Amino acid sequence: MTTPTVDVHAHLLVPEVEAAVADHPGLAAARALDARRNGPAALAVSGPMVRERLPRLTDVAVRLAAMDAQGVDVQLVSPSPSHYHYWADEATAEKVYRLAGEATAAHCAQAPDRLHGLGLVPLQHPEQAVPALEHALELGLSGVEISSHAPGRELSDPAYEPLWTRAEETGAILFLHPFGCTLDERLDQWYLSNTVGQPTENAVALSHLIFSGVLDRHPGLKLIAAHGGGYLPTHIGRSDHAWSARSDASAGCAHLPSSYLRRLYFDSLVHDPAVLRELIRAAGADRVLLGSDFPFDMGTDDPVGALRAARLSDSDFHAVRGGNATTLLRKD
């Protein structure tokens, strides 16, 4: 296998970010909301899980050893979504994205042939989005990570047009990774906040980008959706039907919603080989990238094995394993 195996969904914890927000009065309210959304049982499990994985989230040598064990040559490393802090005021938000970007760049610089990085964008302050993207690119990062929405704003909000424009111009990667779910306490048992909430948030966010015409206006965006894009790719037929049957559904975008799946990228982390095959059918083998959610428990410790389980053709297997990501990460 001459093409490297590339995992586009791997995370980093940045203690400097958490130290910067520790004394902010908005943090307590944000944590209380997170606790209500997840429920006490989930929090009791998540805390020890993260602590046990802390070396893999912070130590480059430990990360590389784990990658070797998985057969992964290259990771695209993004800050943990817990670092978004979309509750923060403008000054705090700028501090967060600068610290996150600088720490990620320093982490990746310890193994530049194996680690690429992403910064953060404070979506709650759209006027900071382009400066945050520029800061990430100046640090040598490949782009930025964003959530599915910010308080009071969906990704279809016109205020984000400058971000999409600049990302398209620069060829920056946008990694769409939700954090939290607005269904709130309805999902506060059995870890539904993640198992149902994350795929829901992905589907809603991608639908906003499609139906609002963002992808018509910016066809060159390099946007990777985590978790295989959630529920949308396997249920896109309902969106197509609405677009064909209703004038309100077709008012914002020029083509069938399913056609836009081939303008997006998706990671392979769907936990079901049949779903992965359907994702590849819907989006195209050239639009799916290996993803593990390293090193969290809702990821996979064997991303290549999970890919093999889908029993793809050799060409599709190697495209998803690393060929597509290698092309996407290549700097012209």
Low-confidence stretches: none
SSE run: EHHHHEHEHEEEHEHHHEHHEHEHH
CATH fold label: TIM Barrel
Full CATH superfamily name = Metal-dependent hydrolases
Helix content: 40-55%
Number of domains: 1
- The end-to-end distance, rounded to whole angstroms, is 24 Å
Strand arrangement within the widest β-sheet reads 1-2-3-4-7-8-9-10
**Net shape:** globular
Q: Pairing-aware structural class of the strands and helices?
A: alpha/beta
CATH class: Alpha Beta
Tell me what you see in this structure.
- By secondary structure, the chain is an alpha/beta fold.
- The protein has a single domain, classed as TIM Barrel (Alpha-Beta Barrel), CATH 3.20.20.
- The protein contains 15 helices and 10 strands.
- The strands form 2 sheets. The chain has an 8-stranded parallel β-sheet with strand order 1-2-3-4-7-8-9-10. The protein has a two-stranded antiparallel ribbon with strand order 5-6.
- The longest helix is centred in the first third of the chain and has 20 residues.
- 47% of the residues are buried.
- The mean pLDDT is 97.
List the helices and strands and how they pair.
Layout: E1 6-12, H1 15-21, H2 25-38, H3 40-58, H4 60-70, E2 74-79, H5 90-109, E3 115-120, H6 129-138, E4 143-146, E5 149-150, E6 153-154, H7 161-170, E7 173-176, H8 192-195, H9 197-211, H10 214-217, E8 222-225, H11 236-245, H12 247-250, E9 265-267, H13 273-283, E10 288-289, H14 303-308, H15 314-329
Parallel strand pairs: 1-2, 2-3, 3-4, 4-7, 7-8, 8-9, 9-10
Antiparallel strand pairs: 5-6
Helix pairs in contact: 1-5, 3-4
InterPro entries: ACMSD, Amidohydro-rel, Metal_Hydrolase
Keywords: Lyase
Protein name: Amidohydrolase
